[in-house]
Description:
By secondary structure, the protein is α/β, with parallel strands linked by helices. It is built from eleven helices and seven strands. The chain has a single domain (24-226), classed as Rossmann fold. It has helices spanning 2-19, 24-31, 34-38, 62-73, 77-92, 95-98, 110-116, 120-132, 159-165, 174-181, 203-214; strands at residues 44-48, 51-57, 101-105, 146-147, 170-171, 191-198, 219-226. The strands form two sheets. The chain has a five-stranded mixed β-sheet, sandwiched between helices. α2 packs across α4 (62-73), α4 (62-73) packs across α5 (77-92) and α5 crosses α8 (120-132).
Amino acid sequence: MRRLYHARMSFFTHLIDLIFPPRASTVLVRSATFPLLSALLAPKIVMVENVSVVALLPYRTPLVQALIVAAKYENDRKAQELLGEVLATYIKERIKKWGSIVIVPLPLGKARRKARGYNQVEEIAKCTARHIGAGTKNLVQSDLLVRVHETVPQTSLGRMARKENMRHAFAVPARIGEKAHGSGSMDSSLTYLLLDDVLTTGATLAAAHAALLKAGAKHVIVLALAH
């Protein structure tokens, strides 16, 4: 019965494609596989305002760009799953060195989150946690870092304006530290993996990194899925 259902869905998909040809990026996402994406995994360190950011994938590659865009603007589950699996691969190779980790997805502002309905970085991080497996119940902590004020979209600004736009944009709510550790500071024994989808000038990640350090984090690794 399931095979018949998938056969029918495949037929209708092909029929719709004949009538309304899909975009090239849509075809790339549909045909994407983990081996194809993982072959592009090439971590490199990019220095941003004295912060080392590890970028995992080359954004200029059509497949990477198609997956990032689909995950961000279309809430595409396959794209999020593949990106999450690649991130899990990178993390699992280093987790013994890092020890206990927490993934901190870069948060959206309240207005943007409400309008979009989701945070694609958070969704990708959840996929990563599933691929890492056992003992990862609290691996993703989406409420650890918040935007304390709305910011203008970074794509519309120059380098210096982006930096100013993000100044004091993030904070760690005191209640989180107090509830977890009784002091208002973060757990200094944990390694926090600060995650964003695309690295451009890095002003956003640098501001978020500064907020984690200010709150007491001792070990912060900054990651971007693509650059």
